[in-house]
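Incident log entry.

Two folding requests arrived from the same account within the same minute. Monitoring flagged them as a possible duplicate submission, but the sequences differ. Recording both here for audit purposes.

Request one:
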Amino acid sequence: MSALALIRDMKDTNYTISLTELLTDKDKKVKVRAANVLGKIGNKTALVSFRKAISEPNISVTFTKALLINIGRLGSQEDIQLIRNYLYHSNPEISIYAAGSLAMLGSIEGEEILFEASLSEDGWIQRISYHGLGLLRTTKSRNRLEEIINDENASWKSYALLAYHIQQFDDNDDKKYIDQLTNLAENNDRVVAKWAIGQLVDLLDIEFS
């Protein structure tokens, strides 16, 4: 059976029910994998389970990140405020995934939240907002990133510059992405470039010395 056929079969309600049950499994890795599979199959009925799971107390950072990304994949306007709360989370790993999730929803309200965050006096909030703006690829987000890059007094310009370049990358050309990001790293903050690779794409095998 091809991978495509398998995914089509998994969209069946019975498979979705079985996978959503795994969101409460005792094994953390099982829960994360179940969330990711549900997100990738694209069955929106999983959203109810995602929303319930993320509201549970004491869930792991890894599971929270998986839920945020997959709510971003499948969610709607209804999820904007839920995700926004995590944008200001005390754990930076969670807040950056919330920024990505807002961008993935692709709504005007989500873009406004990221735009406002880019004006924050909190340096970390500024940086994660650039991440989200870079994923949006809208005229407004591109103009905001250009404004930051051209502002002599702006903070964290390396992050804005990376986000701006990531916005221009061709999703269908991974090699081009790697080449451009690597070249950018040569002329800017290599630590920032490594962060961008780790957070924006699953290319963790690339090493920067």
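Request two (distinct sequence, not a duplicate):
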Amino acid sequence: MNLPSNEAYRGKMTNVDLVGSVRYIVKQYTYPGGRQLLAQVSGVAAIAAMTLVAAGIVAVGIQTNSPVWSIACLAIWFLLIGWTVGLTMINVYPTVWVSDEHLTISAFLFVRVNVPWTGIIDVGAGHVPFGHILVRARHITPFHRVYGWMCSRTLYPSFVVGRGIQEREELLGQIKERARDA
């Protein structure tokens, strides 16, 4: 396996995890500026707005004695659209951490999900607009199947590596090499 040594990471390390007596070097890849934060805040705003619209529909429906099934259907429709769009926006630019053991991505604001190298299926499959790259895996979260479906018409969970992520080519090279050698 042709992986960079600890020496290659000198000056680039963002975190050193100590698990027992084993030392793991972790490299972090993020998006510069406020792009990631803006997408997350916009996602939260979309969820909040559509939830309020659904609550408003229910309130108006109750006041006007509308049929319960039509109120429920319309409110659920707004909730599904709002939460799907919002969660997609929250997770569109994940921070990615690479270690010897696994790949870690940020999901749902403050949650991190570990993806073992053996769980990476492929890099670059499907069609992602604007020059972004899709990484498909066996397990991330059930919601990440939305990205797989939108970009490659598969139900494999996926995440997008945007063209604006720092050191993008290095990250993609690490993912491809480590997944191949796992």
